[in-house]
Every structure is written in structure tokens, then in C-alpha cells.
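sry for the spam today, last one i promise. C-alpha cells for design, 273 residues
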């Protein structure tokens, strides 16, 4: 069996889970082609669907769904009825719509979703004042990822003929989530900006930006194309890129979700079959 394992990972959590899945697939004697679609250029290449028997797709959750750029990438795939599975990493909030809307999207692309999974991952906004799931993914998450891989392979091979159970329709429509996404990108998180003009001008922030939004000479990002993924901030060797302090929104987020840091940190990763 030939499997494609495609994933988007701006700050590394989704990649860690993808690595565990890849290792397990290889141990099971499966040919696996890994495709990192974090860069814009990698998402512009066609996917040779006919070369693969099944697909794993891995995404972080942004505003309760897979990132918009990943959904747009999936919309270019014509799935020919092939089987696939999707795994998400998320920082502890509002993950259910991601599963539901992913199933809806994949149905449209003629890809048959056989399983999904969600794994805790340190929230991207921890880099600017949040404290959600700071130590994740951890050993237990990796064990769940191994189990998820085995159970999904059984569905790919047709050894487990059960069908993926329906997800509950979320209380937020897609257009409401689109609005939430617009609000968050430019109201809650401000554009990443260089503190001052003194940096080593290594160009890395511009090179690794998933949407080509960063201008390393100006030291700030394009308002329309930046997706607030914090990849530039996380990787700047001089540590001079920052966004606004999000500590206030962290306490408000906990209040809004009627939860605590401890509850978020103790959430368990989950497989859906
Ligand atoms: C723009 C943006 C929006 C996010 N929205 C959510 C969200 O709605 N719920 C959540 O639990 N985590 C959210 N996160 C956190 C990420 O899902 C989480 O940190 C993920 O593991 C990051 O994956 P990566 O390291 O592979 O990029 C968001 C992160 C970013 C950058
Ligand atoms: S990554 Fe950091 S050091 Fe390199 S050009 Fe960008 S801001 Fe400057
Ligand atoms: S400029 Fe925006 S989209 Fe690009 S890496 Fe930085 S945060 Fe991500």
C-alpha cells in the first residue's frame, strides 16, 4: 500500500505527530511519502492522487477549523473515492467544528474519510502570553498517535468495515467562523513586527512564512496575507519579532470557556472512528 502523509505545521506540533505516524507506517511495512505543505510553493504543486492508495492529512486547528490555506489546498484535490484520515493538533479550545467541517469538505472532494483524531499541542499564542497545553504533545499523545495509525490502517485495508460515525453539527455556521477568523487575525493578534531595526537581516522570517506575507526588510507582515501562524516569531534567531501581548485575552478565554489552565493541560488526545 502507498500512503501519502501530508501535513501543515507552522510551529512544529503537527509535524511531531506526523513523524510518529510515519514511523509507525514504516514499521508496518507501508510505503509512505511525506509531504510538508507548510510553504506556499509546496501547496501550489499538483498532488498525483492516482499514485496513492490512501491519505493521512495533518493540520493545526485555527479558529475551530483547519487553516484556511489548508482548506484551499484540499479543495484542489480530486479524490476519486480514495480513503483518507485527518489528524489535528490544537491548543485545548473549540475543536469539534474542525472535524465536522473537514468531513463536509472531503465529501465534496470525493475523498472517503475513515477516521479522524485530535492531539493536544502547545497553543501558538503561548508565545505571547497564553499558557495552554504547554507541555504537549507528550508521550501519552504519541502513544495515542500510534494507536490511531494502526486503527486507521485497518480501515484503509478494509479489515475494519465499520464506518466513521457522524459528527454533531456545530452551533457555528461556516460563515460565522469566517467572521471569527477575520476578527481574530487583525483584532486579537496584531501583525508580527520587528522590535527595532537592529537584526542580523538573515531573511529567515521571509523565507519560511507559509503565505509569503513577511517582508524582512520592513520587518513586518502584509495585513491581507498574514495568517497569524507565528512561524516567523518562533524561528527568528535574534528573537526580535513580536506580536501584541495576549495575556489579557488568555484570562478572558478561560472565563469564556468556563475552564481552567489545569483542565486544559489535562485534556486527553482522542481518536474518532
Ligand atoms: C491563528 C491561530 C488560531 C488558532 N485557533 C485555535 C483554536 O481555535 N482552538 C485551539 O484549541 N487552538 C487554536 N490554535 C492553536 C493551534 O491549533 C495549536 O497550537 C497547534 O498545535 C499548532 O500547530 P503547529 O505547531 O503544527 O503549527 C490556533 C493557533 C493559531 C496560530
Ligand atoms: S528572522 Fe529575525 S533576524 Fe532574521 S531577518 Fe527576520 S527579523 Fe531579522
Ligand atoms: S508573517 Fe504572518 S503568516 Fe508569515 S510566518 Fe509570520 S505570522 Fe505566519
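last one done:
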Amino acid at each position: 500500500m502507498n500512503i501519502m502523509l501530508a501535513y501543515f505545521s507552522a510551529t512544529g506540533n503537527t509535524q511531531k505527530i506526523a513523524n510518529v505516524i510515519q514511523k509507525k507506517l514504516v514499521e508496518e511495512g507501508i510505503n509512505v511519502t511525506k509531504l510538508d505543505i507548510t510553504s506556499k510553493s509546496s501547496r501550489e504543486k499538483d498532488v498525483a492522487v492516482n499514485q496513492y492508495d490512501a491519505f493521512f492529512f495533518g493540520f493545526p486547528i485555527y479558529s475551530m477549523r483547519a487553516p484556511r490555506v489548508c482548506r484551499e489546498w484540499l479543495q484542489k484535490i480530486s479524490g476519486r473515492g480514495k480513503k483518507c484520515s485527518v489528524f489535528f493538533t490544537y491548543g485545548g479550545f473549540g475543536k469539534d467544528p474542525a472535524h465536522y467541517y473537514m468531513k463536509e469538505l472531503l465529501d465534496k472532494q470525493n475523498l472517503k474519510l475513515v477516521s479522524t483524531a485530535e492531539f493536544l499541542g502547545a497553543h501558538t499564542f503561548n508565545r505571547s502570553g497564553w499558557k495552554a497545553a504547554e507541555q504537549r504533545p507528550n508521550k501519552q499523545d504519541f502513544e495515542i498517535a500510534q494507536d490511531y495509525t494502526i486503527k486507521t490502517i485497518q480501515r484503509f485495508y478494509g479489515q475494519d468495515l465499520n464506518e466513521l460515525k457522524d459528527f454533531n453539527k456545530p452551533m457555528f455556521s461556516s460563515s460565522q467562523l469566517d467572521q471569527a477568523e477575520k476578527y481574530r487575525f487583525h483584532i486579537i493578534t496584531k501583525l508580527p513586527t520587528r522590535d527595532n531595526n537592529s537584526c542580523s537581516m538573515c531573511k529567515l522570517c521571509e523565507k519560511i512564512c507559509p503565505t509569503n506575507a513577511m517582508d524582512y526588510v520592513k520587518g513586518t507582515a502584509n495585513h491581507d496575507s498574514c495568517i497569524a501562524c507565528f512561524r516567523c516569531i518562533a524561528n527568528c534567531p535574534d528573537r526580535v519579532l513580536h506580536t501584541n501581548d495576549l495575556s489579557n485575552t488568555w484570562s478572558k478565554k478561560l472565563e469564556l470557556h468556563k475552564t481552567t489552565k489545569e483542565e486544559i493541560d489535562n485534556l486527553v488526545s482522542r481518536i474518532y472512528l
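The longest strand covers residues 112-120. ok im logging off now
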